[in-house]
């Protein structure tokens, strides 16, 4: 079977993760765990909030990324986006500091 278009439909109501309420705790626990790779995802959930707020959240993630140990790799997993300002902020603050990125062909169009 072959699908000619993306058939994903996301429904999510996760305020705590959208506002990164657990990021500091995660970062602290991650230092103790000492993983080889950190996978960050869910950024598509942020696109329904104001620019200043998500840009601030992305800057916080950026500071955490810069604080990981050099042996650790950062992988970013994208979702479907429609806000070009959000994509620009995501690229500037997060994707530019990652080691790898995952996306599909529709999501690739937004990164051009």
Quickly list its features:
112 residues, alpha/beta, three-stranded parallel sheet, 3 strands, 11% strand, globular
Q: What is the subunit organization of this protein?
A: single chain
Counting DSSP E segments of at least 2 residues, the number of strands comes to 3
**Average pLDDT taken over every residue:** 81
Task: Determine the strand fraction and express it as a percent band.
Answer: 5-15%
Tell me about the biggest sheet?
3 strands, parallel
Give the count of structural domains.
Answer: 1
Helix/strand/pairing category: alpha/beta
Continuous helix count: 5
Strand arrangement in the largest pleated sheet:
1-2-3
Beginning-to-end CA distance, first to last residue: 29 Å
Shape: globular
Low-confidence stretches: none
Task: Write structural notes for this entry.
With 112 residues, the chain is of the alpha/beta class. It has one domain (16-110). The chain has five helices and three strands, in the order ααβαβαβα. A three-stranded parallel beta sheet has the order 1-2-3, with no helix packed on it. β1 (37-40), α3 (51-66) and β2 form a beta-alpha-beta unit.
